[in-house]
Amino acid sequence: MLLADFLEPSTIVYEQRILTREQVYKDIINRIYQLRPDIEPKCGETLLESILEREKEAPMVYPSGIAIPHIRLEGLADTLIGMTFLQNPLNYDGIKADWIVMIFTDKTSSKIYLNIVSALLKISEDEEMMTQLRSFNNGIEVINYLRQCKIKVGQELSVADLMVKNPVCVTPDTLLSKVDSLMNEHNISCIPVVDNEGRYLGEISILDVLKVGMPDYLMMIDDVAFLRSYEPLESLFEKEELVCAEEIMQKNTRVLSSDASIVETVYHMIKDNKRYFCVVDKEYLVGIITAMDVFRKVIKA
Amino acid sequence: MSATVSMLIAVGIFIGTYILIITEVINKMLASLIGAFLLILTGILSQDIALRAIDWNVIFFLIGMMLVIAVLRRTGIFMYIAIKTAKLARGNPLLIMMLMFVITAIASAFLGSVTTIMILIPIILLICNELKITPVPYIIMMVVASNMGGAATMIGDPPNIIIGSATDYDFLDFIFNLTPAIIFASIACLALMWFMYHDKLKVSRENRAKMLSYKEEGLIKNKRMLKISLIALAIMLVLLALESILKIGTATISMSTGLFLVLIGERKEIEQIMVHEVDWVTLFFFVGLFIIVEGLVQTGFISLLAHKVLDLTHNQARPTSMAILWLSGVLSAFIDNVPFVATMIPLIKQIGTVITEPNLIDPIWWAMSLGTCLGGNGTLIGASSNVVAVGIAKKNGLNISFKKFTKVSVVYTILSLIVCSAYILLRYF
Fold first, then answer.
1. Which residues contact B49 (CB under 8 A, 6 or more apart)?
2. Most A CBs within 10 Å: which of B73, B119, B125, as the mutation test of the A interface?
């Protein structure tokens, strides 16, 4: 299936004015209603409110500058797409988006939606295509260009689409103090360890850091309810300058490749009871994927 | 196949398996099962005879005990006793060592040495760390205590469980004959311990205060379950003591107790307990051993060996029991004591067909039991609890070498074997 076949020229707009998110969304919704006047609910305002409400929890914006709000409708039995190219990008809590694509799907279908998202993300990450798309000024040109590029819907969403690229990482000789401050600064609970060339070696989770203050024998005791305070744990910071990443990192843990599917990712997350995986392609670290990324971008979409 | 060839193959498989078990080239359960099924494959044993050689009474008894311990452990009673003991000693390092010795021995006598060691060694590491003293002598002393305690009852160490199952001796016979020997040996060891360590261990007031601030009250989470468990354990011991009248079977007694406790206290956790708390690897190791030893019995090797032993001791019970005590002691210091006992049982049964008077054969059995269990202290590899304890120490950055361990433990082994020799000679002859 080609992405171009899902699009209608009348729902693709180039906008020069400075508009708010609400105005942009309202405009797209109106155009979709003109295309399909039979949509329930009849009132576009309710749809707009619900979509803005949902975005407060998890805005569907991606670092490449595309926002993909999603609306599920009871009994729509179709997939409708409206899009706006903005001269003046919208600001989503720090991430700027100049391409807003709104997707309407039936309540029950989500596979096709994920496939469309995947296709859109691939386009948005492609500098050359984006330059071309921005240079047009009407929907027909957009549809023709996408048809010409043979952009397909059906390539499954993969880890590469959702992962955080170039995550914060450290080398084996990094001191624990540095690891601690990076975790604190970036508000992350896992740091991959790589060599100087960027090859993945292992990872350090926040629990590995805390474990420095907990000797093995303590972990073998059935219950530590009798201990009120414990010196090694409280003086963890004294070891910060003595312990380096290599000593506390987890080796031989599962990593995912960037072309792994989302279902495989979730499968391993649940099975291993882990909320993140490092993404490694041919020994090199390329990203990190967290359960929250999957949750926000796929499940809440 | 001629009888001699069969015997040679059986002995060959036996020796090959034992070498694998001692050197630990491969997992010992794997070695014993391979040896066992090789005997069937080569036609030395029919599958029927091989499977019937497995002492299911031992296997189910152990499963039952593992269930009992799993439930008991979750009540927090072991932790409570250990912490309470250290506090009762008011942080006095020698007193802690001696009390821990006693507690380890008593717990091992009723729950098995390995479990006791797995629970208590991490705690002593914690206490020594808080008191800033070296845990090495404590670890060695507790291992010595666990092997001695395990020798005291029928349900302590696996060798006694296996002897109890293979013979007509019941729970009370073990208590009357072995427990006094172990009490004497323990007193001797405690005296030696005092002599060795009384002026070596020092603790500062500050560190002692830290340990005394432990709040052990919170460790017992479910008082009702603890009460039920202790009552069930007491009933189990009474049933075991009355076994010669009741004739229920020891496996049934332990399984009933275990199943009852799991049903009452941990029925939601049953799969977890069956997978993680029942030590299937050890159980199947035993299964393999029973079959391998049956190969030696069926091919006549054991009776050959028994006659050689009796020739050497001129059919006399006194030198035979002394020889068995010290031979068991020395050999089980190097060989895992379960395979050793599994081999010795048919041998002594065979001797029993020559020395038929009960008061003469009894001391031979007790000599073997004491020799095997106490011999486990001889070296670092003598018994499972030694290996487990040293393994835990190593995981905590504490390297106890073979030499370092053996240098201390062998003294206690020889002392306890001397005490037992005197006990056997004075009591039975």
1. B294, B298
2. B125
| Contacts of residue B23, Cβ cutoff 8 Å, sequence gap at least 6 | none
pLDDT exceeds cutoff 60 at A301: no
The terminus-to-terminus CA distance of chain B in angstroms comes to 46
**CA A286/CA B361 separation, integer angstroms:** 74
Q: Which residues contact B351 (CB under 8 A, 6 or more apart)?
A: B306, B309, B310, B320, B361, B364
Together in a domain, A117 and A191: no
Interface residues from chain B to A (CB-CB < 8 Å): 73-74, 76, 78-79, 83, 118-119, 121-123, 125-126, 129-130, 210, 213-216, 218-219, 221, 392, 395-396
Q: Are A192 and A203 in contact (CB under 8 A)?
A: yes
Measured in angstroms, the CA of A149 and the nearest CA of chain B are apart by 56
Residue owning tokens 């009490």: B183
Nearest C-alpha neighbor of B16 from the set B28, B4, B1: B28
Q: Which of A221, A233, A242 to mutate to test the interface with B (most CBs of B within 10 A)?
A: A221
**Domain limits at A24?**
3-155
Query: Which domain-ending residue is among A155, A177, A194?
Result: A155
pLDDT digits (tens, 9 = 90+) for B115-164: 899 999 999 999 998 889 999 999 999 999 999 999 999 999 899 999 99
Find chain B residues with C-beta within 8 A of A216's C-beta: 392, 395-396
Biggest CA-to-CA distance, chain A:
73
pLDDT in tens, A14-67: 988 888 888 899 889 888 888 888 877 777 778 888 888 888 877 788 888 999
What's the rounded Cα separation, in Å, for the pair B293 and B36? 9
Token look-up 């029928």 returns B154
Residue whose entry in the numeric block shows the structure tokens 């998202």? A117
Q: What is the DSSP string of B147-179?
A: HHHHTTSTTSSHHHHHHHHHSS--HHHHHHHHH
Q: Do the beta carbons of residue B162 and residue B58 sit within 8 Å?
A: yes
Pick the residue of A212, A214, A219, A223 with the most B CBs within 10 A to test the interface with B by mutation: A223
Q: Do A220 and B129 touch (CB under 8 A)?
A: no
Q: What is the pTM of this model?
A: 0.74
Q: What are the tens digits of pLDDT across the range B260-283?
A: 999 998 899 899 999 988 999 989
> A217 and B122 in contact by Cβ < 8 A?
yes
Cβ atoms within 10 Å, residue A254: 11
CB contact under 8 A, A222 and B78: yes
CA atoms within 13 A on the CB side of A179: 34
How many domains are contained in chain A? 2
Residues A53 and A176 in one domain: no
ipTM: 0.76
Q: Hey, where are the domains in chain B?
A: 3-52+76-220+279-428
- Cβ(B253)–Cβ(B243) under 8 Å? yes
Can you give the CATH number for the domain in which A144 is found? 3.40.930.10
Q: Is residue A233 part of a domain?
A: no
Closest chain A C-alpha to B407 CA, distance in angstroms: 25
How far is it, in rounded angstroms, from Cα B133 to Cα B33? 44
Q: Are B379 and B337 in contact (CB under 8 A)?
A: no
Q: How far apart are CA B88 and CA B95, in angstroms?
A: 9
Question: What is the separation of C-alpha A22 from the centre of its chain, rounded to a whole number of angstroms?
Answer: 23
In a shared domain, residues A168 and A130: no
Report chain A residues whose CB lies below 8 A from the CB of B206.
none
Determine the Cα–Cα distance for residues B403 and B18; give it in Å rounded to an integer. 23
Reported as a single tens digit per residue, the pLDDT across B21-53 is 888 888 889 999 999 999 999 999 999 999 999
